[in-house]
Task: structure prediction
Amino acid sequence: MAQTLTRADVQRIATLARLELTDEEITLFASQLSAILGYADQVQKVDTSDVSAEAASLSANRFRDDAPVPCLDRDVVLSQAPAADRAAGLFKVPRVLGS
Result:
C-alpha cells in the first residue's frame, strides 16, 4: 500500500535537508512525493519470479573495455580555467563549506 505523506512529513524532510518551504510548496510536495511513493509501490508489485538472477545482475560486463588514453595537458587546462593557481597546478573554486 502506498504511503501518503502529510504536510508534517514534508516539513520534517525539509528541515532535515535544511530547506525553507512556503505553505504552498509544502502542499505541492506532499502531493508529488506521495505520487512518487505510489509509483514505487507499483514497481514493487511487479511479478519478477520468472526473471533469472543472471538476467538481473550486473555481473556481466556490459561496458566497453577500459583502455588507457593520454590525459589532458595540465598547462593547457589551467590556462583556460577562469581562476587557477598555475604554480601549484590547481583550480581555485569558491569556498562552500564553513562559509
